[in-house]
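S.,

Sequence below, as promised.
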Amino acid sequence: MDLTSPEMKEIGEAIVVLHRDGTTQGRPLLLRLWEKHAVDGAPIQISTLAHYLADTEAEVGEELEWDLKSLQAATGSRASEDHDPVSADLASFLPSLHLNVGDCYRRLGDLERARRHARFAETRIGVLADDPYGKLIRGGLRRLQARL
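The prediction came back faster than expected:
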């Protein structure tokens, strides 16, 4: 995964704007990049963009749609099944993606699918390092499991 490519640098800059300035400023940048990369972009680009676009949605159903697009880019499937990543460098995305999908299903009241995605996240969480990101995802998974 080349996070230093011009495309990923541009995506990273849009994510910084989203975090720094909020949805009003960040969402249009992410949508413009989505239009640019959604068809021919690398899976890492598509998955990253969809993942962050999910965070800009106010409605859970729309958030889930973006999260499923992110999962599909990373695994080649939107199904409520556990699939390997399309490339090894996306393996560390899967725990977070399944966590996000599971939480959306929980908020929509589909507890069966929520539990399924929580199990998938738990199965794949071992790829994460014991660093702040890994701790964040592990904590999120514990909270989701407690709510289910």
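The first helix runs from residue 6 to 21.

Coffee later?
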